[in-house]
Write a structure and sequence with these properties.
With about 350 residues, the protein is of the alpha+beta class. The chain contains six helices and 22 strands. The protein has a single domain, classed as YerB-like (YerB-like fold, 3-Layer(bba) Sandwich), CATH 3.50.90. The strands form four sheets. Strands 1, 2, 3, 4, 5, 8, 14, 17, 18, 19, 20 and 21 form a twelve-stranded mixed beta sheet that branches. Strand 9 and strand 10 form a beta hairpin. Pfam families: DUF3048 (PF11258), DUF3048_C (PF17479).
Length: about 350
Amino acid sequence: MINRKVIQLIALMMILLIGCSSNNDSSPDASEVPVGESPSKETGSGQQEEKEIEEEKEIFPLTGTPGETAIDKRPFAVVINNDVKARPQSGLHKADIVYEVLAEGDITRLLAIFQSQVPPDSIGPVRSARSYFIDLAKGYDPIFVFHGWSPEAREKIEAGEVDGINGLTYDGTLFKRASFRVAPHNSYITHENIEKGSDRLGYSLAKAVPALIFHEKGDTPAGDETDYVKISYSKRAATHVEYSYEENENHYVRSSGGEKNIDLDTSEEIVAHNIFIVESDHQIVDDAGRREIDIISGGRAILIQNGVRREVEWKEDEGRILPYLNGSPVPFTPGKTWIQIVPDLSNVTY
């Protein structure tokens, strides 16, 4: 028979061995990891999560940056008054792309294209369309918003070249008159009413928008250092446009007539990350001083971005005016773009 003391000694040793094993094995094995999770090192896990979140953000086609709306939201293109009596305007700070083009005399009008950001509550003052505004808008297949038209513009719109909402038809309903300005400088519309009008007219509000080409993050375009540019549409100071570079923000702050451009409702500065200055042929075609502007043939242009400028060419590409160099497209810097169409690049100074 086994001695009782020996049996007790063996039992005591087994208890001690079990206790040591329990204390040393404090980490769970694979079977103890909750379903759907996997063991990972704590170091760098936060950075990995941030990277994954950033990769999930949708990059918007007209700015090359993350936006606030649905990626397939159909753009709005609004003809905006740029007379001195219409400044400061409402909504331009939210536009992805803005064209500035001469209308009658030395007064310019703006075509503002909205897509990536939630549109502002108020947009305007809205002004009448010209035929070349329709041609400029068509490259983005937008809802085209205007208040009145020239005979040539009316012909294009009634032929269905764009899906239009006309303030002449909806004055006092979709379009509202502001009491603090006089006609024709006081017609405004909200993005909500643009959507209501689109629904009423049977226009789709969701469409795929072909993307512009943008520089990759960290790219540094070569060119001549440019922290200031002035565009003179005439000798009158009221028609002079200026952009001043802010290096910390990598954007240009816009001024007109010697005053910084701000949003009427929010006082937010109007800025551009790309200034694309395009020289095209202008011809006066009637006694009212209306023009035909060549936005098809291409020609000389200046592209200013990231604090530098360079001479490029412009080409019409599926309805869009875009920069080219040696036959290849030139990328934009991610952000907002202002396209200045001028009769002569000699009216631009740096």
